[in-house]
Amino acid sequence: MKRLISLSLLTLLIALYQAVWTEAAIPLSSAQGDKGIHVWQTQQRLRALGFLKAEADGVFGSDTALSLYAYQAEKGIRPTGEADEETIRLLFLPPEPKKGDTLRPSWYGGGSELIPIGARFQIKDVRTNAVFSCVRVMGVSHLDAEPLTAEDTALMLDIYGGEWSWDRRPILLNYQGNVYAASMNGKPHGWEVIPGNDMSGHFCVHFFGARGDGSQRVDPEHLACAVEAGLYGWE
């Protein structure tokens, strides 16, 4: 029963995480005199940032307008005192990522093309900070990889405590200076491509939305690890 409850909570947290930075989560524009949940969301955000001292009540009054004037002035945008489209996007959307920031690509939204087959990259296990080098060897529903050398295989095995396992782990993947949040398992399986690396088979790397080969479904444990990895940076 405890495991079922934990999985339910985990599923809910993942769904909330995915929704936070989407267009659907952004409230509508509003102005003085408006009422509703979209006003309440804007007020809550302004309170969290320290611009609004009054309670969020869903009613756009003078306090909300003044807090918006202050926010707009600090951000250097046109001071309207309204929650216009520009202000709403600045309040609720994260800034455009810069090179070196941790990115969270969707596998079926272009993520599958970010790292070509044969490309070399580094993996960092965020729980141990251990780093090893890999090569993408294949992968359609997710990325299939192998350690580059026997030394890299030994580093990966050490991350798993000296015993290969299907356990998922949160990782950062660094390719040409771009850092991606992902998840890996530690169980060599299937065919192998790279000779002399002491791994009999390959292992799997899952970006957001990647699927298992057999089930063709998103693995909730891989997804949870990718979410966790997204909280970290490479350095």
UniProtKB/TrEMBL annotation:
InterPro entries: Peptidoglycan-bd-like, PGBD-like_sf, PGBDSf. Residues 42-91 form the Peptidoglycan binding-like domain. Coiled coil: none annotated. This is Peptidoglycan binding-like domain-containing protein. It comes from bioreactor metagenome.
